Each structure stands twice: as structure tokens, then as C-alpha cells.
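Structure, all two chains, one model.
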Amino acid sequence: EAGVAQSPRYKIIEKRQSVAFWCNPISGHATLYWYQQILGQGPKLLIQFQNNGVVDDSQLPKDRFSAERLKGVDSTLKIQPAKLEDSAVYLCASSLNNQPQHFGDGTRLSIL
Amino acid sequence: AQSVTQLDSQVPVFEEAPVELRCNYSSSVSVYLFWYVQYPNQGLQLLLKYLSGSTLVKGINGFEAEFNKSQTSFHLRKPSVHISDTAEYFCAVRASGGAQKLVFGQGTRLTINP
């Protein structure tokens, strides 16, 4: 079974620039999650999708972060404009029918 | 809402020694509990989970954990560690039922010394 795919693995941008991350979940997994993991901390949920609908985006900074999951499969997470405090690893995960989540390897974002 | 406290940010042990990584949680509803491992530059991999039933759960790589409802704990143990167990370990909790989000602890860095 192919795992959760994320790209790019690394991204370096300057503050105030925009950036986008892509996630392809495990085939058939209806639930998709985006997490932010700041260095030295545990992952924090940003947004959760069920198919192409949003279940929970209570911790998503909506003034600069956006996410979509068109057609209920792939998802993109965008930051515009980026701030220094957005430096983190962005993890995508997917799950099937409330089973445990499977994580991708993440995108490491550095803001200069 | 749920919360998780991992009581040790770093745990150094010698190879072949036993180890316990401590995790306490808080919740007003019944929960599911998980331990994940994260190797450098990788995502999180599920070690084990407690959903219901036996309070002692066994996972991959020789790890096990015990759910203690009265002490709201879910400590992770391994009787004999190996160099390859060096990693970051995260305890996580979610409310049972429905599509509930995972809440993670801060993580415990396990370092195995030869």
C-alpha cells in the first residue's frame, strides 16, 4: 500500500512570500488532516477534511492560511503571506473510517 | 477538550536497558490513546493504540503500553532498547466516536547510548 505522499520535502522562502504544499493521501482514505509541527513541539491540527468538506479548521490562521481538497482526494495548503513564526514542518495525514491516522514525511518550511 | 502531558522531554538510556516514557492525559469524555514514533526527517509512525478492551496493549518493535483510567496515564515501555530506538516519541489522545482530532503531547526524545 502506498503511503501518504507530500511535496516538496523542503522549502525556503522569505517572509511575506507565498508558499503551497501538496498532499496525496492513501487511496480510499476519506479523512485528510494537515498538522503544523514547530521545532520541539508535538503536531498541532490545522484543518481536517472529510471527503471534500471541512470538519475542523478551528486552529487554522485564516487570515494567511488556506486549504482545499477538491474532488475529495489531493489537498493543498497555502500560506500567504508567510511570517517568520510559520517556520515548521507541515505534516499531512489520512485515515479510513476513524482508524488510526497515517502520516506523510512532511514539508520542512524555513522562513528567512 | 483533551490535553496530553509527556512528563519527560528527554530520556537517555543505555543499550539493552529497560525504558519507560510517561504520558498523562486529561479528558471529560472517553478517549482513544496512541503512541507515535518519529525518526529524523520523517513523519509519524504508529507504535500502538488503545481503543478498548485489555488495558495492556502491544505494538511494533517490542513496545507496549498500559492504559490506567484511574491515573489517566498511558505509559510506554520496552524491556530492552536498541540503538535503533533513538527517536522522538509522541503520545496522543482523541475523543472516542466520530471524526475527532488527535491532540499530541510535546514529545519525548529517547536517546540510546552504547
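Chain B touches chain A at residues 4, 34, 36, 41-46, 49, 90, 92, 98-107 (CB under 8 Å).
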